[in-house]
Amino acid sequence: MTRAAALSFRAGPGALQAIHKHGFSAELVGTMAGASGGAKWLVLSKLDRVVVDTLVPGLRGPVHLIGSSIGAWRFACYAQRRPLEAIERFEEAYLGQTYSDDPDRDEITAKSREILDYVLSETGTAEILSHPVLRTNVMTVRSRHLTASEQPAVLVPGLLAAAALNAVSRRSLGAFFERVLFYDARDLPPFYDARGFPLTQVELSEGNLKDAIAATGSIPMVLSGVRDIAGAPRGIYRDGGVIDYHLDLPQSAPERLTLYLHFIDRIVPGWFDKKLSWRKPDPSNVDRTILVSPSKEFVSRLPHAKIPDRQDFVNFEPEERVRAWRTVVDMCDELADEFHEVLDKNQLAARLEPL
Fold first, then answer.
1. Strand duo 63-68 + 29-34: pairing
2. How far are the Cα atoms of 58, 185, 285 from residue 129, in angstroms, in the given order?
């Protein structure tokens, strides 16, 4: 009996048409997108290795990387001089993180910074900003009003209000958060003027890159926000996934494609939309997007029949959590092998389904 496919391949109408007509090659990729998702990234670590080892050498620059939260952390590995080593450092540090029995926000924030320092090492920031092909872009939010407080008695009501109003209108999030895009000024990305929310653009530099990456991973109430990032308006910066959970913004230039390695086969616009099944991305934003994700059948075979997530810290003892996470990473060799085969044998057009 043949085992079901381990990967799902979906694409927007423009990408489907382009690939069926011309085929797929790395030269067509103009953007790579990476979603928020915390520990979910572990199911992509082997696919990330395929991308940097197989596809990145064939890219025709500039290629824009756009990530929120853990997506930006993954791309901080892509754009270093030795990306495979950076991914290995990230995976090692992420799997090995340990905490006290009841860690507070300060402890979790300190550990996050420790991991980021290890991933970037001494030269990572300069390498990212000078990469010959890849252009790093980091999406964050600057908190407004109640959500700009670090006091739970103020922040929690602000988040609850944001969630309630978001259920009525996604645009209401603009009253609580401002999009702040930290961008590589060498080439402006297709999402530079993304509409729908208040947006400030800040040029990435050696003085703010690390803080921008830390900020986009700063989940409200879990980690402390990052205050007053160099070159940016004063304020508290938090997880870009609050608005751009799965990056509902213009991803591709008209003649290029977006490659999007993802945890699931659909795109959820914002952090507060996770349980709002009717909330969909703007179709024009993903028209030329190729979404690659683990299949439901593959996920059903993982430990506990699920992709790792942040709740694993609560639901499992540390030893059980780490054991399960390491098993997931090992099992994801299957994803990498299948991705390699699809690329090597030019099978992408035959595998694509509508996004």
1. parallel
2. 20, 9, 26
Distance CA 178, CA 65 (A): 20
**Which band of pLDDT confidence, cut at 50, 70 and 90, is reported for residue 4?**
confident
Q: Give the other-Cβ count within 10 Å of 313's Cβ.
A: 16
Query: Among all chains, which residue has been given the structure tokens 């609850």?
Result: 160
Q: Which amino acid is at 320?
A: E
At residue 260, φ and ψ (nearest 5 deg) are -130, 100
In this prediction, residue 309 carries a pLDDT of 96
Distance CA 32, CA 134 (A): 9
Convert the pLDDT of each residue in 173-213 to its tens digit. 999 999 999 999 999 999 999 999 999 999 999 999 999 99
Q: Is residue 7 within a helix (H) or strand (E), and if so which, with residue range?
A: strand 7-11
pLDDT at 46 over 60: yes
**Tokens representing 121?**
């090492």
Scan for tokens 């009501």, then name that residue.
157
Pairing of strands 134-143, 63-68: parallel
The C-alpha atoms of residue 218 and residue 241 are separated, in whole angstroms, by: 10
pTM, full prediction: 0.96
